[in-house]
Amino acid sequence: MCGRFGFIYPSAEDWADATADLEYTQEYKKAYKKLLAERKNRTNIAPTQIIPTIAYSEKENSHLIVEMRWGWEPVWRPFGQLHNANFQTVLNPSKPTWKKDFVERRCIIPASFTYDWQVRDDGKKIPWKLERSDGKLMFLAALWQYDTIRKDREKKVLTVAMMTQHGNKLFQMLNNDEPPGTQPILLESNQLSAWLNPEIKDPVAIASLIRLNGDDEFKATPLAQIGNDETEEYPVDGHWVDPYAVKTEYYSEPTETRYSKPEKKTK
Q1: Buried/exposed code over 95-110 (b: 16+ C-beta within 10 A; e: otherwise)
Q2: Which domain holds residue 245?
Q3: Which pTM was predicted?
Q4: What is the C-alpha to C-alpha distance for residues 175 and 230, in angstroms, rounded to an integer?
Q5: If DSSP codes are grouped into helix, strand and coil, which group holds residue 4?
Q6: Among candidate residues 67, 80, 72, 69, the one with its CA nearest the CA of residue 101
Q7: CA 20 to 30 Å from 221, out of 142, 155, 242, 246?
Q8: Torsions phi, psi for 34 (to 5 deg)
Q9: 189, 18 in Cβ contact below 8 A?
């Protein structure tokens, strides 16, 4: 489960290079200009906070940068918020919560790193910073909704949930208090437009954009302290420990996480 992340704003040139797959319409440029004018590096983003997302607006016929609330609090849920949407759950026919969103309301959360907390064999809990090993910006697959939330039933709110999936070995070791562990779904720069394309409604085609990233695609850093948005402090590196040196049962990826059309019944 991903419950914290950070977003350090790249330069305008790096952002343009990373998002070259998107169409730079006048509406997009206007939204990006507004984002830059109000930008503030974030090192500890938590659920319920407002975050920038990349979405496609059919009304504007343009990609846009839209502020959304991270975490949906549906009125039918008595407590907590849905800030993660697990791939297995999204594709489970008996759990329709995210079905329509997966087909019609996909978006992207830009991030620089995420956090995970690992329980060591001595009982100590260590925070870890996870980022791409190539140092590039992370584009996290996400789903959005426009609906009322439990805390404010008088108006609709734009909310976003980060998509996660069954974790690779690294993430399972770092999520060892919640076996089998999950990890965010990373999109490559050349997949952004396809993920946001409203004309792609086939779940098989959408699911084909999702893959399980390997351990070597992430850089894991143990921390002495995570970031603090209020004091604008960055994460502080701690003493190196081996992330795999814990007693954790590793679960292989279940085949049902890969979407496939049901077989036709023969007479």
Answers
A1: eebbeebbeebbbbbb
A2: 5-257
A3: 0.91
A4: 26
A5: coil
A6: 72
A7: 142
A8: -65, -40
A9: yes
